[in-house]
UniProtKB/TrEMBL annotation:
PANTHER family: PEPTIDOGLYCAN RECOGNITION PROTEIN, PEPTIDOGLYCAN-RECOGNITION PROTEIN LC-RELATED. Residues 87-106 are annotated as: Disordered. GO terms for biological process: peptidoglycan catabolic process. This is N-acetylmuramoyl-L-alanine amidase. One of its GO terms (molecular function) is N-acetylmuramoyl-L-alanine amidase activity. Residues 266-413 form the N-acetylmuramoyl-L-alanine amidase domain.
Length: 467
């Protein structure tokens, strides 16, 4: 069984969670229908019982009338004889009562009992029973249908097996493959039919458990789709890990930037009054095995914000711009208007009794990788060269999130090598300032869009026309 990238599992379970939400909405609708149906059944059964009782009373009345008309005189004689017999029995009973009065008195208290409460068991009609069965099976059936529509094969996904479509298997007469595919769809549908809670529990387990060494090695080989910058070749990366700063990077920034994630969404919002004058260092505090898309979703989908960090540095050294650099991000409350935020993907805080800390390595390594630190230092050096408002002292220009006024946080974690990051950043900055080639590349970089703050008084288009 081959190792499966965690991101692939999370993506598949995310689709399953969405389908499970549809099942839950469908179940809620069924409950409303069931309540109305039960009310209808009760009213109908009550009306039917009332009509049956009325009909029965009418039939009894007819029978009594027929009986009286057929034998009225004979019945009177019988009634008189019965009355005389009852009188003799009563006299005999009175005599016996006088003789046994004392015994009856002794047992009177013993024989007196309180009323016994009898709770009638409601009679469930066949239609109500059928509706209850349908309510139980319908979500499971819908889950199986959705699993087929979304082509979900969770069993194959977790075991790392490839999925071949049914027509191909049919053409190959691969009946065992068809049976396994069908079973996989059924099991995936049953998981979806159980609602979103089981899926979320499974996702939480996968994203918080401690990864084995083999899983970490396999996850490190996953290339995040849509990355904006390609990392160095394997030989260059190895050289970069053996030396504090890769020599090939000293010649120039070599950083790709086109505005980050969906730059047009910030065209008329989050405008800066001036260019940034400080850089804030963060950690994402997430599992480092998750991809860049998970970080973006955390801000755009979960928090419902327009943007987040200005740049995210992945464990493999990939540089992932997020927010436009000429716009305010969402990363440091009270300081967003004048800062740039750079975040290193992972959780680098270790503290006992802190449930969000990475005490057991469940969020990945406790420190950034060498490639990650090197890439982050290059981004910081680029920003220091692009924006003249930055202080000359690097420890004033670059600060950890926790050092900001009003910041109630441990970010970027007590295991983050902040001094090493500053040293690397200063090395790049000074090397680029002394290199004619780097200065030429920096000058070209300054001409790119989405770098510098624009006039806040610029016209903003009005919906349906132009300003």
């Amino acid at each position: 069984m081959q190792a499966v990238p965690l991101e692939l599992l999370i993506n598949g379970l995310t689709v399953a969670a969405g389908a499970a939400l549809l099942v839950e909405r469908f179940t809620e609708l069924l409950k409303q229908v069931k309540e109305r149906a039960n009310k209808f059944f009760l009213e109908r059964d009550a009306e039917a019982a009332k009509l049956a009782a009325l009909k029965n009373a009418q039939q009894q009345t007819v029978l009594i009338q027929q009986h009286l008309q057929a034998g009225h005189s004979a019945d009177l004689a019988v009634l008189k004889a019965a009355a005389a017999s009852d009188g003799n029995t009563a006299d005999s009973h009175n005599s016996d009562s006088n003789n046994s009065g004392e015994n009856d008195t002794e047992h009177t208290a013993f024989e007196q009992h309180g009323a016994i409460t009898v709770i009638p068991i409601p009679v469930i009609s066949g239609e109500s029973a059928a509706l209850n069965v349908f309510m139980r099976l319908a979500p499971l059936g819908l889950g199986i249908i959705l699993a087929g529509i979304f082509d979900l094969h969770l069993l194959a996904m977790f075991t790392g097996q490839s999925v071949v479509d049914i027509p191909t298997l049919w053409a190959q007469n691969n009946w065992s493959g068809i049976a396994l595919q069908t079973l996989d769809t059924l099991l995936s549908g049953l998981l979806i039919g159980g609602g979103s809670q089981p899926v979320h529990v499974l996702m939480r387990f996968l994203t918080t458990r401690r990864l084995t060494d083999s899983e970490k090695q396999a996850l490190a080989q996953v290339i995040d789709p849509g990355e904006e910058s390609r990392i160095a070749s394997s030989a260059d990366k190895a050289a970069g890990q053996n030396t504090p700063v890769a020599e090939s990077r000293l010649a120039g920034p070599d950083i790709h930037y086109v505005g980050g994630v969906n730059p047009q969404s910030l065209e008329y919002v989050h405008r800066r009054a001036a260019d940034p004058d400080q850089i804030v260092v963060h950690h994402t505090a997430m599992n480092s095995a998750l991809g860049f898309n998970a970080i973006v979703d955390e801000f755009l989908q979960q928090k419902k914000w327009l943007t987040g960090y200005h740049c995210v540095i992945m464990p493999d050294g990939a540089i992932r711009p997020f927010c436009r650099w000429d716009r305010t991000g969402n990363h440091a409350k009270g300081h967003n208007d004048h800062t740039l935020g750079i975040s290193f993907h992972g959780n680098f805080h270790q503290q006992e009794h802190d449930r969000f800390a990475n005490n057991d390595g469940r969020y990945g390594p406790l420190t950034p990788t060498p490639a990650q630190l090197d890439a982050g230092a290059r981004v910081i050096a680029l920003w220091l060269n692009l924006y003249p408002q930055m202080p000359g002292q690097i420890n004033e220009a670059v600060v950890p999130h926790r050092a900001l006024s009003g910041a109630n946080t441990v970010c970027p974690g007590n295991q983050f090598p902040f001094a090493d990051l500053l040293r690397r950043s200063e090395t790049y900055r000074t090397a680029w300032q002394a290199s004619p080639q780097a200065q030429s590349e920096l000058q070209a970089f300054r001409q790119k869009p989405y770098i510098y703050a624009q006039n806040l008084n610029a016209a903003v288009p009005v919906a349906g026309g132009s300003a």
